[in-house]
């Protein structure tokens, strides 16, 4: 029977990390397990920066964005000596298991700790929705809402001023945020890594569009060297004033929305139950509305699912 667990958040923060933390703490205590938090992810594990936490301390954190136990990118964790120190720190405190909330990099760290005798379970926390084993990651739903609100606002002003807006979302090589936002907001042009357009293709679509005034060109990050140059070319060809908006880290902030909170609480509670059942080296997924676990080592090797179907739906709808 596990007596003590620790929880960490790692990699890019996302809405819902605090919700997950609170739910794990509550669920652990309700199962007579003492929860600890690690500050700044794997860096804190290495630096022995963790402490015991109570239900009272997490009572209101679910209303906040970001992660109250902080996050860090810590590539040094790939070093065996660094990991040995982290494992020593956990063992000195009598902590046998770790809940790791984050994306790909977080999962890789968890898999390495499993090999070193620590029980681990992952919760998918990233706005990018780029973990192939799960239909949804924690943070995606809220980030999508933030993007939708931003584009709705841009529509107001660009309709008033007869403008085109080139809008860039995050995604880190995964088009899910942009594709879903394009469907919701009716973006006239969509370019994502799964279906990249040339500037000429963007212009052709804009010229063929039924929209008279406001037009949105939605692109995913890390695809083009210079969006301002693309906007200039679009303006020249369409003779319509064109502005660029990079949504940036605004997409990562804010408190998780209701659906995100509900899904996250249930996922986190499931994670604790699975740890108690003896599962380790796995992460929680939601697939077709059901929770399940899958070995992390399999997850990190999985290919990205095809986006063909949802891209066709975008083509049909917009
Ligand atoms: O993985 C989340 C994410 O926001 C990506 O969409 C983005 O590419 C990256 O993190 C940005 O990382 P950082 O905040 O370290 O610049």
Automatic annotation (TrEMBL):
Species annotation: Candidatus Hepatoplasma crinochetorum Av
Keywords of the record: Allosteric enzyme, ATP-binding, Cytoplasm, Glycolysis, Kinase, Magnesium, Metal-binding, Nucleotide-binding, Transferase
Requisite cofactors: Mg(2+)
GO cellular component assignments: 6-phosphofructokinase complex
One GO MF term: identical protein binding
Any one GO BP annotation for this protein: fructose 1,6-bisphosphate metabolic process
EC class: transferase
Family: Belongs to the phosphofructokinase type A (PFKA) family.
Pfam family, one: PFK
Catalytic activity: beta-D-fructose 6-phosphate + ATP = beta-D-fructose 1,6-bisphosphate + ADP + H(+)
Pathway note: Carbohydrate degradation; glycolysis; D-glyceraldehyde 3-phosphate and glycerone phosphate from D-glucose: step 3/4
Record-linked InterPro entries: ATP_PFK, ATP_PFK_prok-type, Phosphofructokinase_CS, Phosphofructokinase_dom, PKF_sf
Source organism, top-level taxon: Bacteria
Name the UniProt record assigns to this protein: 6-phosphofructokinase
Domain Phosphofructokinase span(s) in chain numbering: 4-275
Annotated compartments: Cytoplasm
E.C. number: 2.7.1.11
Role played: Catalyzes the phosphorylation of D-fructose 6-phosphate to fructose 1,6-bisphosphate by ATP, the first committing step of glycolysis.
Transmembrane recorded as keyword: no
Main location: cytoplasm
């Amino acid at each position: 029977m596990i007596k003590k667990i620790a929880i960490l958040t790692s990699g890019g923060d996302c809405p819902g990390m605090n919700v997950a933390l609170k739910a794990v703490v509550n669920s652990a205590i309700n199962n007579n397990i003492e929860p600890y938090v690690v500050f700044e992810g794997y860096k804190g594990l290495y630096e022995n920066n963790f402490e015991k936490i109570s239900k009272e301390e997490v009572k209101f954190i679910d209303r906040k964005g970001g992660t109250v136990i902080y996050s860090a990118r810590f590539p040094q964790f790939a070093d065996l000596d660094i990991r040995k120190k982290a494992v020593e720190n956990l063992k000195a405190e009598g902590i046998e298991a770790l809940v790791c909330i984050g994306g790909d990099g977080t999962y890789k760290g968890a898999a390495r700790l499993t090999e070193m005798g620590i029980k681990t379970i992952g919760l998918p926390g990233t706005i990018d929705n780029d973990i192939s084993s799960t239909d949804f990651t924690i943070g995606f739903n809220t980030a999508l809402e933030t993007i939708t609100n931003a584009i709705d606002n841009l529509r107001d002003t660009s309709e008033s001023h007869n403008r085109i807006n080139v809008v860039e979302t995050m995604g880190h090589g995964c088009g899910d945020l942009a594709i879903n936002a394009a469907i919701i907001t009716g973006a006239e042009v969509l370019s994502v890594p799964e279906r990249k357009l040339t500037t000429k293709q963007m212009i052709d679509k804009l010229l063929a569009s039924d929209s008279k005034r406001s037009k949105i060109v939605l692109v995913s990050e890390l695809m083009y060297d210079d969006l301002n140059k693309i906007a200039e070319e679009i303006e020249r060809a369409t003779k319509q004033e064109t502005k660029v908006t990079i949504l940036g880290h605004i997409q990562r902030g804010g408190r998780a929305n209701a659906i995100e909170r509900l899904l996250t609480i249930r996922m986190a509670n499931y994670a604790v139950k699975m740890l108690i059942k003896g599962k380790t080296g796995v992460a929680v997924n939601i697939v077709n509305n059901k929770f399940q676990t899958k070995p992390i080592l399999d997850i990190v090797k999985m290919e990205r699912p095809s986006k063909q179907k949802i891209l066709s739906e975008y083509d049909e709808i917009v």
